[in-house]
Write a structure and sequence with these properties.
- The chain is an alpha/beta fold.
- About 45% of the residues lie in helices and about 15% in strands.
- It is built from 13 helices and 13 strands.
- The chain has a 7-stranded mixed β-sheet with strand order 2-10-9-8-5-3-4, sandwiched between helices. It has a two-stranded parallel sheet with strand order 1-12. Strands 6-7 form a two-stranded antiparallel ribbon.
- Helix 2 packs across helix 10 (about 235-250) and helix 5 (about 115-125) packs parallel to helix 6 (about 145-150).
- Bound molecules: pyridoxal-5'-phosphate.
- Pyridoxal-5'-phosphate binds near residues 85, 162, 163 and 183.
Length: about 350
């Protein structure tokens, strides 16, 4: 199988970690593994005095946790809805009855930052909720711009970096991000099942709300002191996280990003050769979103018959190819040939 869907192809030895007997987790060994995980993650995301909470759940669990514990504690939110993931922020605000204003950004477009500045000035929110990379289209937003607007108006910045962490350049300290979230099945190139919430030093000072029992920040932070989670963690997944983070630190963040970018640029050149249009104004390195020209209705299933997975979407003719995980130019060539063959039928 060749997968260009998240999390991409994973090294055999990392897969094997979860194919063993499961060690007990209420032990000094597991506590120290989690403490090391936290330290390595903070280093990779450039957050010096923060904390990382580990939740067993998918990425949306982290979004849910942040809205119910953090945003709800601060008050009015401002949401960037640039696609299905941005839309999820506003659905969560509705769900937790948090007052919010939403700025809708058209499919695959960048934000109009002048308009954003005006709207934030008028709206006077307390907290800003956005994506770094809107994975539904491939569009990467400019966090420097967003961050300076938030700083100007004293708005706390929360960023979903689920699909940009380890793919695109990012530093929580430099950008003044208060809360960031990610999950295991994207940049970490691991099985799905764990969501990570990064809290900066300033976010740790907030008096969190308590309306989410499983995802309660205070309870999780208290347990984190001893390297534990309040409830059963996905033990072997956190062992895989540990192995992945050690490797990532050895490789170095710049090299990881450069490697993903190289694959993305290689595939985009092929898209251009085949007139597969890429709509994102400013594409993330994480994925390439592109339109095929023919046979879009059978593309996904016919590729699947060849043992290849790409990601379909709600937009007709639009597909996404992830550049995370094991992938080289030869494999991308094979993918291109397979798509061409199906288009030519
Ligand atoms: C994948 C993703 C999520 C979370 O999706 P889950 O299916 O809950 O893991 C959230 N935001 C973005 C930007 C994503 O790419």
């Amino acid at each position: 199988m060749q997968t260009y869907a998240f999390p991409g192809n994973i090294e055999e030895d990392i897969l094997q970690i979860s194919a063993q007997q499961i060690p007990y987790m209420r032990t000094a060994w597991f506590s120290s593994l989690m403490k090391e995980n936290e330290k390595m993650l903070l280093q990779l995301i450039g957050c010096t005095e923060g904390r990382v909470m580990f939740f067993t759940g998918s990425g949306t669990g982290a979004m849910d946790a942040v809205v119910s514990n953090y945003a709800k504690a601060l008050g009015k939110a401002f949401v960037i809805d640039g696609g299905s993931f941005g839309h999820r922020w506003s659905q969560l605000c509705d769900y937790y009855e948090l007052e919010h204003e939403t700025m809708v950004v058209p499919f695959a477009h960048d934000i109009d930052y002048d308009e954003l500045d005006r709207r934030v000035a008028e709206s006077k929110p307390k907290v800003f909720l956005c994506q770094h990379h809107e994975t539904s289209s491939g569009q990467l937003f400019d966090l420097k711009h967003i961050s300076s607007i938030c700083k100007n108006y004293g708005v706390s910045l929360v960023v979903d970096v689920i699909s940009s962490f380890l793919s695109d350049e990012l530093s929580m300290d430099e950008l003044g991000i208060d809360v960031a979230i990610t999950s295991t099945q994207k940049g970490l190139n691991l099985p799905p099942g764990a969501a990570l919430v990064f809290l900066s030093k300033s976010a740790l000072g907030v008096d969190f709300c308590h309306n989410n029992y499983y995802f309660d920040f205070q309870d999780n932070l208290k347990n984190l002191e001893r390297g534990q989670t309040p409830f059963s963690p996905a033990t072997t997944l956190f062992m895989q996280v540990h192995e992945r983070l050690e490797r990532n630190l050895r490789i170095g963040i710049e090299n990881i990003i450069a490697n993903t970018r190289r694959k993305a640029l290689y595939f985009r050149a092929k898209c251009q050769e085949n007139a597969w249009q890429i709509p994102a104004e400013c594409p993330s390195n994480a994925i390439t979103g592109f339109f095929v020209n023919r046979n879009a209705d059978i593309m996904f299933t016919e590729l699947q018959k060849k043992g290849i997975f790409i990601m379909p979407s709600g937009t007709p003719g639009f597909f996404r190819v992830s550049h995370m995980g094991i992938q080289d130019e030869t494999e991308l060539d094979e993918l291109v040939e397979a798509i061409k063959e199906i288009e030519a039928r």
